[in-house]
Amino acid sequence: MSPVLTATRLPRSGNAALAAGALIQAALGLDFVFAGLNKTVNPNYLEQFSGFVQNSPAATNGPLAPILQTLVLPNLELAATVARLTELVAGAVLLLTAFEVVRRRFAAPFGAQHGYEPLVALASSLAAFAVGTMSLAIYVLEGGRLPSVNANFSLSSPIAIELLIVPFALGIAWLEFARYRALRGVMG
Question: Among 16, 72, 81, 96, fewest CB within 10 Å belongs to which?
Answer without folding.
Answer: 16
